[in-house]
Design a protein that fits this description.
Strand content: 15-25%
CATH superfamily: P-loop containing nucleotide triphosphate hydrolases
Strand order of the largest sheet: 2-6-1-7-8
Number of helices: 9
Order of helices and strands: EHEHHEEEHHEHEHHEH
CATH class: Alpha Beta
Structural class: alpha/beta
Number of domains: 1
CATH architecture: 3-Layer(aba) Sandwich
Distance between the termini: 16 Å
Length: 215
């Protein structure tokens, strides 16, 4: 039976970086669920589907969408969209569309299948509460609002994207509100999830802590 380490938390808490390193050190696969939502949102916007579209419209639209994760690459119908889906705009639409039942149901089985086929480290917003409620290890990774905004500001500017600290903070606040207040699978800490505040911790410290839990 495969083993799953599930990590939830708000935007900018360091889930992706931590999950990649944990997976690498344990020899597990890394499931970047954020990339799945970003890629699907990109597909929908490219095909003229708006956030207010009916679930029937979305279900019909995603029939021809194929998303694959190959290492660090994200392929959308064969196209490498790894860099395209990391823009603030892509993140915005991913957050908006992730509140839709039709989108979550489309990606749910894809995520569960990954957990059945190999040992994985899965990170997202509802890994511990919905996708992998029986995960071997459950983590809620958090950080202060300003700390998360600072990380996002640095990350995007290093990629050459122009963004102010004020914009980064606003983006974090808006995504927090959407993630925690949506009707379907809202972001929340599972009762049995271990809470880790990474505000004053290095990535290595967080990774070491999770690995000790897994062992």
């Amino acid at each position: 039976m495969s083993r799953v380490i599930a990590i939830d938390g708000p935007s900018g808490a360091g889930k992706s970086s931590v999950s990649r390193l944990v997976a690498m050190r344990l020899g597990y696969q890394y499931l970047d669920t954020g990339a799945l939502y970003r890629a699907l949102a990109l597909y929908l916007t490219r095909n003229g589907v708006i956030a207010e579209a009916s679930d029937a419209t979305i279900v019909n639209a995603v029939k021809d969408a194929t998303i694959k994760l190959e290492g660090e690459k994200v392929l959308l119908n064969g196209e490498d969209v790894t860099d395209i889906i990391r823009t603030p705009e892509a993140g915005h639409f991913a957050s908006v569309f992730s509140a839709r039942k039709s989108v979550r149901e489309y990606l749910l089985e894809m995520q569960k299948t990954a957990g059945r086929s190999s040992n994985i480290v899965a990170e997202g917003r509802d890994m511990t509460t919905v996708v992998f409620p029986d995960a071997m290890v459950k983590i809620y990774l958090d950080a202060s609002e300003h700390g998360r905004a600072q990380r996002r500001y640095v990350q995007l500017n290093e990629k050459g994207m122009s963004i102010t600290m004020e914009d980064a903070l606003k983006d974090v606040q808006e995504r927090d509100f959407r993630d925690k207040n949506r009707d379907i699978a809202p972001l929340k800490r599972a009762d049995e999830a271990v809470y880790i505040d990474s505000t004053n911790m290095s990535i290595e410290e967080v990774v070491d802590h999770i690995i000790q839990m897994a062992k």
